[in-house]
Amino acid sequence: MPKNRVLIAGGGIGGLALALSLHQVGVPFTVFESAKKMDPLGVGINLQSNAVRELQDMGIGEEDLSEFGLPVQEWALLGLNGREIHSEPRGRDAGYDWPQYSVHRGEFQMLLYHELVRRAGRHTVRLDSTATGYKINEDGSVTLSLQTRDGVPSEETGQLLIGADGIHSAIRAQMHPDQPQIHWGGTLMWRGTTWAKPLRSGASFIGLGNHHQRMVMYPISKPNPETGLALINWIAETVADTASDRQRNSWFRPVAIESFVHYFEDFRYDWFSAPELINGAKDAFENPMIDRDPIPTWVDGPVCLIGDAAHPMYPTGSNGASQAIMDARHLTRNFLDHGLTPKALSLFDETFCEALSDLALRNRGAGPFGLLQLVDSRCGGEFDDIEDVLPKAEREAFLARYKAAAGYERDSLNEAERLIGADEKVALS
To answer: In this structure, are residues 88 and 74 in contact, taking their beta carbons and an 8 Å threshold?
Structure first.
């Protein structure tokens, strides 16, 4: 193996995006993924315009994303009474040069995986290899400790190690052994997909309810031309008084629909029925809305965290996957400027650690769904005309602050130079 190889712990969206970026700029790498087999797991996610731009620059275009998703046209927030609080266009409809996409997470991960294998070779991804820790060597290299699911240990040495191993990251745990336990704010989520008629624009991201209980739904497929039905991704959320340790810490487990659908019995309107949508799903999955408290640094010499290992976020801002992609691209930009050095990692840390920690705390405070809290605080969630409760200018200013913090404010993104040029390569020693 080349001595200047980058070790990537984790083959999720962040790890695979980094691998594709490193291959683009000529850097040797190996991805170590805990799964024995890559499968299209999960449900729907959103890819913001900044991430779609970077995917395009990696050679993954709209025709690829449209295989299992579709461009978002509208973001809409509705009160518990079914009345509109705020709506706005998204993606190209909002003047961005790139669309926003709603996609199936598992299918998107498989796209990244298959594209990486096609471009760089199957040997660049090692499955059944769970990261358990690391050791920094006297010569400045780093050795990654691994273990198969059957308990067989191994080690790999490289020039740098990137921990992209998620919210339960072993790399983060070693870097910050005194970090607090997983943070659970009291909200449980149930997720699923149902074939149903898309609402509003036909490609709308809709949040409905209040900050104690809400539904989020959006299509992740084009409508069937014969039936008019699209695959609707939905998330049903409610605040729980108590939860078991398993509920607080597990990420994704199947549950019976009848165990939770009753919480949303009152979500019935002349234009929509939440029980009907939920009951139409084949499967449902439960997970707590969890994150971790921010840490002071993502870097330990030649080791760096990205994605959920660095800044796990509540999914209230619809930008967790997008930020993992942006991490990969910004880190690769630093390698172009500073080589495969600890300096490249430390500059990434200095630029983004504090800012993204603040963003994670914004998401803990409900992110853009914080508008629901404002409405509740002013009128208990019941209103006839939202302008009397929360004027449009105030709503737009609230969302503009979030977009700026998340890195996808329209004019800034449209005017920004490309992060990585088509022919740029890292100078390897």
So the answer is: yes
φ, ψ for residue 172, nearest 5 deg: -65, -40
Query: pLDDT digits over 199-228, tens only?
Result: 999 999 999 988 788 999 999 999 999 999
3-state secondary structure of 179: coil
CA–CA separation, 109 and 34 (whole Å): 14
3-state secondary structure of 263: helix
Q: What is the pLDDT of residue 187?
A: 86
Cα–Cα distance, 100 to 46 (Å, whole number): 7
CA distances from 413 to 221, 394, 409, 410 (A): 26, 23, 6, 5
Q: Are 2 and 28 in contact (CB under 8 A)?
A: yes
d(CA 167, CA 358): 17
Fill in the amino acid letter for 211.
H
What are the respective helix, strand and coil percentages of the chain, to the nearest 5? Answer: 35, 25, 40
Is 29 in contact with 5 (CB distance < 8 Å)?
Answer: yes
What span, in angstroms and rounded, lies between the C-alpha atoms of 418 and 410?
A: 15
